[in-house]
Fold:
Amino acid sequence: MELREYEVMYETEKDHWWFRGKRKIVFSQVDKLLGGKLIGKKYSILDLGCGTGIMIKEFEKYGATSGIDIVAEALHFCQKRNLKRLVQGDLMKLPFKSNSFDLVSIFDVLYHKEIKNDVNAMKEIYRIMKPGGHLILTDSADMKLWSRHDIAAHARERYTVGKMSSRLRKAGFSVVKASYFNMILYPLVFAYRKLDNVLNKNRPVKTNIDKSNPAVSAVLFSVLWLESVAMRLFSLPFGVSIFVIAKKP
Structure:
């Protein structure tokens, strides 16, 4: 990701509808997964490609959290959130012992072009997880949505649920839950990105994350909130992103 995008994320992700909505979807599923298991247990949790650290803050209520990112600039913003257990390191060669973590998360990371072989990355994640541990994953979906946003994010590809699930199984995981999300807004996102590709093709690339009008942001967040409720009951058939829970047997 372009370095300037880390500052944009840090400044916007607390209140921006997209980040708030993704957190709602993720932690609705985490609560459903863990349920009453939280009583008397402190999970060891690692956020891979932790970015500016906002997801680590959310995970703190579940146990002892750690974060790793290859980019020093990202960890600088994590420190501004008073996060302590931070490591600069490479996903392809994680500096942790085997069977170390109960829960590992990786949000919108595997699609980056810096990861040459995502199955090998998944095998490395598998190695550091405890037997019975869970992987919580989100990533970008559907190559029809490929845009300047993806170029700015240093993307390699956008996934399908089937492709991601197949690669996780190759790495040894079993897939517990696999769904798309941001389904309702898909037509708007599709149209916006196609227009952006045409109208701004000669301008410097940047992601689609900008400060948004609070009223508009509230409406858009409510859409993802609705999807978070639906996803507790069933998986969504298409969307802008994918969500997966996988388990190490």
Remarks:
- DSSP finds nine helices and seven strands in the chain.
- The domain at 43-203+234-247 is CATH 3.40.50.150 (Rossmann fold).
- The chain has one domain: 43-203+234-247.
